[in-house]
Structure formats: structure tokens, C-alpha cells
Amino acid sequence: MTTLERFRTSRFHAHGYHFAITSADEELVAEFNELLVDMRADEPPRDPDSDSATDVIHIDELATDDDGQRWYRVTGPQRVHYERLWEGSMISHTLIAVNHAAAMRCQEHGAVPIHGGAAALDGRAVVLPGHSESGKTTLSTALGTRPGWAYVADEVCRLSPDHLTIAPYGKPVALRRRSVALLADVIDRLGRDGSRLEQDERFVPPSELRGSASAPPSAEQPVALIVFPRVDTEQASKIEPVSPARALELLTQNTLGGTPSTRTLTRWEQQRRVAAFAALDRLVRQAPAYELAMSDLDAACHLVEEAVG
To answer: How far apart are CA 146 and CA 246, in angstroms?
Structure first.
């Protein structure tokens, strides 16, 4: 094979954003195909102006350093995602770019992209908004492995402003070392060593997070509860209700793309943000909200189950 020959992944979708990945590194392409299995989409129309058109992300090897680590350049249509990216961060950073594109596509379609996780019990979704390292991914992943629960989404929760439902998102969950240690006993993949592309985080497709009575949903789930998690090792895990006003404040802090702002915006941007704020306001008036301090993961899951029940 020459350096000009490439391998191509399947076509994937992320809340209406469609993409594929090409590289001369066959192992890299195969790993993306395996981990992004729940994001696969049918082949699109060839119209480049269609919402179904596919962005192609190119990953090109730059060099191998003295320690044997490989470095890559990641480019997409008309932009450079990363000039120089270490192989151990390849999956996590590529998916950051995908999440950004997915959030933008949500906004273009009038949906509200919430930065958080979500899991559902008996068809009722619990949304877990939070910043990085708040525990939202670990908690939504753990709930997705419990009897009766189904994992729904993480990082980009697509809220329908009309129906106040959350759409499933097939992106693999990304788990740091502490989370891997907590979940290794209940997720088979975490009991095995990660690949050379998973050195900063481990990844698990949603279809491998099945509670005994459920599987990843294919339909949007109505929001029954909002829980704002945070890691707090100084006290026992506890959950406390918060007012709609406080819930709205926290939700706006965890909305990708923002809500109404005083900075200069186009009329369309301002209208979009006002509509997003209105949808969040309706959500907090309909769904109870809680703040959850987590010191023990199993205890935190029990508290969420009691609240949604």
C-alpha cells in the first residue's frame, strides 16, 4: 500500500451531523468502526447541501517519536481540527470535534443541546447536566448498567423544545481512570486493556451498557427528573431538591451554545437563544430538580432511583 491509499470508516451520525473518518492507518479506522458502532448511519444522498451529506475527517500520521508514540494531524472540510495530536488522545479529541458539530446541528434544527448525561427508567428520562469532572458521565453510565435502566446519552443531550424529550445519542461513553476502576466489575470491556488510542480515557459503546431489563432506547424519552451531580468525598452521598429558579440557573450554565446574552448577536442567534431559554424554563416547571452530592457511586444510584420512583 502507498501512503496515498486510505481506509474509510462507516458513516456515522450525531444528532443530524453525519461524518466518516479516513486514514492510511487501518488499525485506527477499525477501532473507530468498533467503538462508534451505535452511531452508524445509512449511506447518504450525494447532495452536498443536504443535511444528510457526510463530512469526511482525515487523520494523517505525522511522525513517530523516540518513545514509539505516533502523532497525527486531523482535518475536516475546510478546517484543521488538530495540527498535532498524540495517538493516546485520538478518540477523545476527535469526538470532542464531533460533539461540537452535533451541538451546532441541534441548534440549527431548533433543539436545545444540554451538556450532560441521561438515563431512563421505565421510559422516564433522568437528565444529569454538569461540567467536566462533575460525575455526570460516571453516573449515567452506572445507571445504564442497572436492572430496568437504559443508558440514553452523554455530553450532548438533545432536548426537544416542543415535547421536552431527550434523544438517544450513540456516542461511546468516555471514562477516566477513576471511573474505570469503579465500573470495571460491571462492564466487560473495562476488564480488558485499552488500545493505544485509549491512553487518556477508555470508551464503551452504549449497546454494552445494558441493564437486565432494558437496552439502549431508539425513541426520544420524556424528561421526568433533572439531577445536577457533583463529586463530594467529604460527606455521605445525599440528594436535595432545588427550586425551579435554581434549576433554570444551573441548566443555562450547562447549555451548549449559550442562552440570551448582551453581547452582539445576529437576530437569528438571539431568537434561537431566547427560544432555548423558554424551553428550559418550561422544563424546570414540569420536571422536579435535585442537586446530588456523590461520595459513593452505588449510593448515588440508589438516591436517583428513589427520586425518579
So the answer is: 29
